[in-house]
Amino acid sequence: MNNEIKTLAAAALKGFAANPQYSQRFRQGTALREWLQVPASRYIVAGDAGTAVDRMRLLAGKGYEVGLEYVGENVTDRDEVRRIEAQYLQLIDLLPHGGLGRRTELNFDLSNVGLLIAPDLACEVTGRIVAAADEKGAFVTLSMERFPMVDDILSVFHRLAASHANIGITLQAYLHRTPDDLDAVLRTGRKIRLVKGVYDEIPERALPRSPALDDRYAELARRMTDAGIDRSFATQDPALIERLMRDGLLADRAEIEMLHGVQPTRLRDLRRDGVKCRVYGTFGDNWYLHFLHRLAEAPETVLQALADIHDPSRIVFGGEY
Q1: What integer pLDDT is reported at residue 101 of this predicted model?
Q2: Angstrom distance (rounded) from CA 60 to CA 288
Q3: Helix locations, the chain, DSSP H
Q4: Is 187's pLDDT higher than 90?
Q5: What is the pTM of this model?
């Protein structure tokens, strides 16, 4: 599959994900959901918190750290915010019974817990989740979102980081502002999760996928390492991971994080080489966007999805880890 076809296929998959009519049909439980259910299970851990904890316990037993996120879309309804908060509080209560308390990070977008309604609401909800997680020995890492939300997300993080040690933040290497944002976050001493960045942003705001982006990522990783903080390098880029290893940036308090179902054998090999590894899993019923985004990242996996539909027995949870 040549690069032009991959680019066009990725654009098509992102278009499907962004189409509100398709998303609505998915939520209504039509044949679209049923058809995609099997291949999506390669990436989605479970439909409910209890099953997600049970399954991630299997990965923890193999020596992985784990992360969990309740999948959803941007929320503008207060009742839905309360429902999502309840999902996380339920998950937190289940963690000790699954033996995952101190092995687990919870991850979520602030846009799913009230940021689009009011930043103060998102801060209140997140504060309650962080406090509950602290009681069970769990950690919370805030995800980063589109450029217009960055200031509000960082504001919520700094407000909560002042009084909670079990909170971290995600930074996007491709944003031109991130080197300056990193200075402020490093002063908190909290954990940082570094990603390349996936949203379409204009050149004035962000670097495209390029060697320049890899150089910036490596420089930010170096600064995080020099600061001696806990740090997570969330990337599936084999060349970048090799560079981080070669530069000595994966020792001590560092980890490599990958999404569940993406390059499991690569993560397994890293773990066997002594690198601390985390599997980031998602659970819930509203997995349409997450699944299509995984396919868009590597359009050749559409063939794998079709094979999974034909033969569901190909998917064995944790089998490749």
Answers
A1: 64
A2: 26
A3: 3-18, 20-27, 31-40, 49-61, 78-94, 119-135, 150-161, 178-188, 211-227, 238-246, 264-272, 288-297, 301-310
A4: yes
A5: 0.93
- Return all residues near 317 (Cβ < 8 A) that are at least 6 apart: 45, 55, 58
Task: Give me the mean pLDDT over the 224-236 stretch.
Answer: 97
Instruction: Report the amino acid identity of residue 282.
Output: T
Residues 6+ apart with CB under 8 A from 60: 66, 99, 100, 103
Residues 6+ apart with CB under 8 A from 75: 81, 84, 111, 112, 113, 114, 116, 117
3-state SS, residue 211 = helix
Residue 233 β-bridge partners: 194, 256
N-term to C-term CA, the chain: 27
Q: Tell me the per-residue pLDDT of 25-79, one tens digit each, with 9 for 90 and over.
A: 887 777 778 888 999 999 999 999 999 999 999 999 999 999 999 998 789 999 9
Token pair for residue 34? 């049923």
What percent of the chain is predicted at pLDDT more than 70? 99
Q: In this structure, which topology does domain 44-286 adopt according to CATH?
A: TIM Barrel (3.20.20)
Residue-wise DSSP of 42-66? TTEEESSHHHHHHHHHHHHHTT-EE
Of 297, 300, 301, the C-alpha closest to 196 is 297
User: Mean pLDDT over residues 179-183, rounded?
Assistant: 98
Q: Three-state SS across 92-117?
A: HHHCHHHCCHHHEEEEECHHHCCCCC
